[in-house]
Structures are given as structure tokens and as C-alpha cells.
Write a structure and sequence with these properties.
By secondary structure, this protein is an alpha+beta fold. Helices cover 34% and strands 27% of the residues. Helix 10 crosses helix 11 (399-410). The structure holds flavin-adenine dinucleotide.
Length: 429
């Protein structure tokens, strides 16, 4: 890939849209906009196949049904289909407590609840596609440094081997939860540390139990998720308190397997073949606004979530699909003779307010659902434990509660974008 992403040699430094960050969300957005008659610049700090790339790594991403539809509508699914493993059932339980919740695709009247894919594989597919998009100038490895926005446009310093200043009508901030660009443009984010890290790795389960079931188990040591993959190789996501992370990472394979076994029990048999482990500090970050002067914020830059519910990318991809639809419709509504650039400038405020209105409820719901899940299961003892036991029983007994949980898992709450309904009708191809 890396030979495809050298710092761009560009015809002009004036763009319609500048995207800061080419992680999973920024790259998806660029591809969703690629057919429009607009000049787009994508600036990404780290080459996609660099081991330092923190977006495209060994983490497994549970893709919701709506994410699959979006990727399919963008014609990306055929590339990843063979490596995406289906989830047909999600099993939620708590160690030492009665009751569990089972969400089953058949009960919901659908084939699969979602799919699991390595972010490295999804990232490669996105960047391979980007290299085919002639309307997009990719600057990589390059950082957005100083950025300034005024009523007339945005200006961005691209820090690369030969630094360059570029300008645009709209800046999309897609550069992650710790975005310095977002802060520069005056949008602060609230950060709440969970005092925990997620430790991920691969582990094989007994082949007799291998299938399409994902597990979420809440334990006194923190949540443990198991996501299915080929040949009975599951990805585990174990949450540990910060002060236990180093010691957990230092455990021998045998000791780590014993820990997983103790926390998970023997529902899927004996764990074997433990792979390398990686740790990610966990926090919730929420931007106080989704827009600023000539700026729109998407993905983790708008909302960085605890991975317990597997929602971060799914939510960010819905941001990207919604924004692409609003921009597409604005350009399509232009009168004959009005250039796409002029139309984008004319409609920018409308696009910003429609984006806020569309995305606010979905983001708020997923943030509070994920955060609430952590709060509910993280506090040991007493009345909360009774509530937890009841809530797990309740999930399984009460069809309405289960349907709600399933809707989150499938990413189908709120207004669906055209891409999420499988339609890519920009009319500009
Ligand atoms: C262990 C773990 C498991 C997860 N599991 C799931 C799951 O099952 N399902 C799910 O939906 N989500 C999951 N997530 C969340 C998901 O990985 C993120 O929500 C998603 O990757 C966010 O993508 P993004 O593009 O918004 O941000 P990022 O991935 O943070 O990408 C931001 C990009 O911007 C670049 N950048 C930063 N600053 C600059 C700058 N100044 N100039 C240019 N470029 C810059 C960075 O190099 C990076 O490539 C998980 C996360 C973790 C940690």
C-alpha cells in the first residue's frame, strides 16, 4: 500500500472539502464523497501499513448490519466478505450471577446480527480504494498542523516533508478522540477516564463450540468479550484496571489462559493457542459540539467510546454516511449553471445544522447506552448487583428490552442513511 500514498503532488491548493484523519471513519467518508464533482483532500499522519498506525491494527471490529450495508453500498464489502466472520448470536452474562441475555438473529428475523473483521484488513481495503479515487488528493504521511476557519473558508497547514498550506470550503475533523485540530477550532471535548485498559488478543476455543456466537461476560475483574473468527480463533477483549494492566500483559501464555478460563468458565471448552496481547487505555470522550465555523466533526473526534458494546466505528460510519448524504443532496439541489463549489458554500450552514439534528440523538443514545452498561456492571456489590441480575434476566424475558438491545447491536436505531439502506445514488457517477 505504502507506494500508493506518497505526499500528493497537487494541481492546486484549493479544495472544497479537507478531511483531517484517514482512519476508518475519515477514509470511509472520503470514499463516500468520491463521486461528487468536488475537490477533496485527505490528510493522514501515519501510513496505513505502518506498525505505528493505531487505527489499522489487530483489533477485531464487530460490524453492525447497518455498517455492512454502508460498506456494501460503497462497493467495499466484496473485498472483505471472505474475511468477515458472521455473528448470529450474542450471549451476555455475568460471572457468578443467575440469568443471561441471548440475542439471536433468527429471533430477530434476519440472517446475521453483524460481522467481525480485523481493523487492519478493513483499513487496507479502504486505502486500496482511496488510491483509485482520482478526485481525492491523499496527503500521507502528513499532519494537519495549524488550522484556521473564517466565514470565507478554512486554511490548513499540512506538515509533511515539504509543508504546504491548503484551503477549503469545509473542514471535516476525523482525526480521533484526542483531536488537536478540533480543539484548535474551539470545540472542546469532555474526557472521562474509566481507569481501565482493554487487553486484546486471539485465543482458540474448542472446535466443538466454534461457531457464530459472540460473548459478553461481565466479571468482577471487568468485562470480557469474545468475538468469533475462522477456525475457532476468537478475539478476546478483556478490561482491566489501569494498575493491573502491566502485570496482566506480563503474564505467561499459560497464566493468561488460566485467567481467561477462570473469568469465562468452560462454556466454550478449554482455551488454547493464545496470541500476542495489546492494551488500549479506555475513556469516554464527547465533543461539546459537532460543528464550528466551516467545520464538521465525525467519528471518534466527536465520540470516543469504551469498546464494550462494539459501537465506536459503527457509530462513526453512520456519521460519515449521514454527512455524505447531506452534501450529496445539497450539490444535487443546485440550479443549472451553479458550480458544486458554489452550491456547497451556499448550503454549508444548512448542511451543518442538518448534520447536528440528524446525528445528535443517535450519538447521545449510543454514548449513554455504552457508558450506562459500564457503570451498571463496573460497580461491585449491593443493590446494583441485584439490578444487574434482574436486568440480565429481564433482557431475556422481556422481548421489548431485548429488541432495544438488538437494535443497538445492529446499528439500526434512528434515521437510516441511504447508504445504510444499501443505496448509493449520488447521480454524479
Ligand atoms: C480494543 C478496541 C476494540 C474495538 N472494537 C470495536 C467494535 O467491535 N466495533 C466498533 O464499532 N468499534 C470498535 N472499536 C472502536 C473503533 O476502533 C473506533 O471507534 C474507530 O477506529 C474510530 O475511527 P476514527 O477514524 O474516527 O478515529 P481513529 O481510528 O482514531 O483515526 C484517526 C486518524 O487520524 C489520524 N490523525 C490524528 N491526528 C491527525 C492530524 N493532526 N493530521 C492528520 N491525521 C491525524 C490518526 O493517525 C488516525 O489514523 C474498538 C476500539 C478498541 C480500542
Amino acid at each position: 500500500m505504502s507506494d500508493l500514498v506518497v505526499p500528493a503532488v497537487v494541481a492546486s491548493n484549493d479544495y472544497d472539502i479537507i478531511i483531517s484523519g484517514g482512519g476508518l471513519v475519515g477514509a470511509s467518508l472520503a470514499i463516500a464523497l468520491a463521486d461528487l464533482p468536488l475537490r477533496i483532500a485527505l490528510v493522514e499522519a501515519v501510513l496505513p501499513d505502518d506498525t505505528e498506525n493505531s487505527s489499522f491494527d489487530e483489533r477485531s471490529i464487530a460490524l453492525s448490519r447497518s455498517s455492512k450495508s454502508i460498506l456494501n453500498a460503497l462497493d467495499l464489502w466484496p473485498d472483505i466478505d471472505a474475511t468477515a466472520w458472521p455473528i448470529d448470536e450474542i450471549h451476555v452474562s455475568e460471572k457468578g450471577r443467575f440469568g443471561s441475555a441471548v440475542i439471536n438473529a433468527g429471533e430477530q428475523g434476519i440472517d446475521h446480527l453483524g460481522h467481525v473483521i480485523k481493523s487492519r484488513i478493513l483499513g487496507r481495503s479502504l486505502w486500496d480504494r482511496l488510491s483509485e479515487c482520482s478526485a481525492i488528493d491523499v496527503f500521507c504521511p502528513a499532519r494537519v498542523g495549524a488550522a484556521a476557519a473564517a466565514s470565507t473558508g478554512v486554511t490548513v497547514n499540512v506538515e509533511q516533508q515539504v509543508p504546504v498550506s491548503i484551503s477549503g470550503a469545509l473542514l471535516v475533523v476525523a482525526d480521533g478522540a484526542r483531536s488537536a485540530v478540533r480543539e484548535q477550532l474551539g470545540v472542546v471535548a469532555q474526557h472521562k477516564s474509566y481507569g481501565q485498559s482493554a487487553i486484546i488478543g486471539n485465543v482458540s476455543i474448542d472446535l466443538r463450540y466454534a461457531g457464530n456466537v459472540a460473548y459478553e461476560r461481565f466479571t468482577s475483574a471487568g468485562p470480557l468479550a469474545l468475538l468469533p473468527g475462522a477456525d475457532g480463533v476468537y478475539t478476546f477483549v478483556l478490561t482491566r484496571n489501569t494498575d493491573e494492566v502491566d502485570a496482566t500483559l506480563a503474564l505467561s501464555d499459560d497464566a493468561m489462559r488460566a485467567l481467561l478460563q477462570e473469568l469465562f468458565g468452560y462454556r466454550v471448552g478449554v482455551f488454547r493457542n493464545l496470541g500476542r496481547r495489546f492494551a488500549y487505555p479506555l475513556y469516554l470522550s464527547t465533543a461539546e459540539s459537532l460543528t464550528a465555523e466551516r467545520t464538521i466533526i465525525v467519528g471518534n473526534a466527536a465520540h470516543g467510546l469504551h469498546p464494550v458494546a462494539g459501537q465506536g466505528f459503527n457509530l462513526g460510519l453512520r456519521d460519515a454516511a449521514a454527512l455524505a448524504e447531506l452534501i450529496t443532496d445539497a450539490i444535487a439541489s443546485g440550479s443549472a449553471g451553479v458550480s458544486a463549489t458554489d452550491q456547497l458554500n451556499a448550503d454549508l450552514e444548512g448542511i451543518q445544522s442538518a448534520y447536528c439534528e440528524w446525528r445528535h440523538a443517535d450519538q447521545r443514545n449510543v454514548v449513554s447506552f455504552t457508558d450506562g452498561l459500564i457503570e451498571l456492571f463496573a460497580k461491585p456489590g449491593g443493590a446494583v448487583s441485584i439490578a444487574r441480575g434482574l436486568s440480565l434476566l429481564g433482557f431475556d424475558i422481556l422481548p421489548a428490552a431485548k429488541r432495544e438491545l438488538a437494535r443497538y447491536a445492529m446499528g439500526q436505531g434512528g434515521r437510516l442513511s441511504r447508504l445504510a439502506r444499501g443505496i448509493r445514488a449520488s447521480g454524479f457517477e
